[in-house]
Structures are given as structure tokens and as C-alpha cells.
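Feature request disguised as a bug: please show the residue count (106) next to Helix-turn-helix transcriptional regulator in the output. Example input:
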Amino acid sequence: MSVQVITRDGEAEYAVLPWAEYQALLQAAGRTVAAAPQEPQGNAVALSELVALREAQGLSQADLARAVGISPHYLNLFESGERQPDGAILRALGRVLGVSAWEQGS
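Example output, currently without the count:
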């Protein structure tokens, strides 16, 4: 299993693992397999605009990551399109960047 542990103040705070491994863990635990997070639809701001939104606010990657509670590396994965944030992170990004559709988890 390939897990990335994200720490804050020397304490483990998050464990990040590939989606397929997460689904396998859920299945092994007898839980319903989760659907992949979806990007907002319709008139909502697209996640692909994350860099432009961050820069328009005058925030560095480190500033936004700190405000959201994730590592700058993890934020970079969202900005590059390699990963999609889960609902809680998307809502936190929406709160910090003022994207109400993300805050509501639509």
C-alpha cells in the first residue's frame, strides 16, 4: 500500500492513498464504495480555474494550502489536475477563495 502521511506540528494529520486502494479498504471493511468526487457542473466555477482564483487573491500555494489545512504539494496536485479534492477540501477551498458553489458542495 502506498500511503502519504501529512503531518502538522510533528503529528500525523492526514493519510493520502490512491483512490483504488481507498476503495479496496472500504470494501474490506464492508462499507459502500465511495464515488469519485465530481467537479461542479453548470454555472459553477470549474476546478481548472483554481490557479487563477488563487493568484487573483494574491495567495501563494503555501498560503492557500495553510488556510485550507493541506500541504502545498497536495494543493499542487489539484492545481495540476492530477487529483480531485474530496468534498471537505473543496468546501474549504471555496470558503477561502469565495466560490460559493464549492462551499455548498454542489
